[in-house]
# Entry
Amino acid sequence: MLEAILLVGGQGTRLRPLTISTPKPMLPVAGFACTEHQIALARAAGVERIILGTSYRAEVFEEHFGHGENYGVELVYAVEDEPLGTGGAIRNAAAHLTCGPNDPVIIFNGDVLTGLDISGLVQKWREANADVALYLTRVEDPRPYGLVPTDADGRVHEFREKPTTPEEIVTDQINAGCYIFKRSIIDSIPSDRPVSVERETFPELLAADRIVIGVVDEGYWLDLGTPLAFAKGSADLVRGIAPSPLLVGRTGEALIETSAKVDPSALITGGTYVGHGAVIGAGAVVTGSVIFANVEVGSDSHVSNSIVSTAAQIGSRCQIVDTVIAERAVIASDKALEPGSLVFPDEKVN
Ligand code: GDD
Ligand code: MG
# Structure
């Protein structure tokens, strides 16, 4: 039986104020929590059992997913009372694994949007007789990520998490946040304290000459950690640029839930998602945005590359660009918000 661990316990600090009440992996991208897209991808690769490593707002996951009855996989929860870091979370989750010491375990960061061929990565791990296989992607600016140079054989000899000096930028290949670990390697992570898999476990495995391979995949990849990335990820899913088993046959310039009321003269485009019960007024233009359930957008307002959370209200003739509006906030008519604004839950902008 193929087992996976999803790391979903982070604070989602860069997505505040959206993550005050909802953990980042549970925020809806194109109508489904990121975790749900990942469960579907894992299931499609033959994963039958997934352990969710939770900490921040742990209860939200179980309330939503239960034990996986409706998701075609068995879901198990490993809850950390205090956040254990990425490596500590993996070690904590391992208590729930049923596989043997030499079996592969798939591990996913909970905020990564990808169409990765998971079975292909497991296959490469097997062929290389590896301890760990890392999914890598190339990005223009690698600084916010883990840098992972590889040699001609795909072996990893170095892992530099979030480099701070220009000399450290030795590659554009980064850790894409999905790994295949040999089970016994997970069991060797210390269990009694927080551990960072990026800053501690990987460097230690490399120093001990364990077989760590990097597999560069050219397909779609995005970390949903910032508001702009989050809106882009949702729009890419809606438009079919980012793949998800949950959206097959439903992609286009907009994804509008049937219970939403969109005035026929409104323009909804650029991969915008409009949630259940939302109301979009006459002449409104909404592009590249995520409109959660029960939001109201007034007539002739323009909303672009923004995230508008549950039951927030935007008046008429507003200009909302690159903005995050948290749940139940109210924006009065005729407001032009500074691009990049963050509006807090229940805040009133008059
Ligand atoms: N259970 C648990 N406990 N999960 C955690 C904890 C913890 O203490 N800390 C973080 N996580 C989870 C987060 O919820 C997220 O899904 C994942 O671990 C990674 O944390 P992020 O905060 O999103 O890290 P990052 O984006 O800065 O960097 C990581 O991802 C990059 C790729 O997206 C690193 O793995 C980088 O090396 C990598 O390039
Ligand atoms: Mg991240």
Remarks:
- The first helix runs from residue 34 to 44.
- The helical segments are 34-44, 59-65, 85-94, 118-127, 183-187, 197-207, 227-239.
- The pocket of magnesium ion (ligand 2) is lined by residues 109, 111, 223, 225 (CB under 6 Å).
- The CA atoms of residues 314 and 331 lie 5 Å apart.
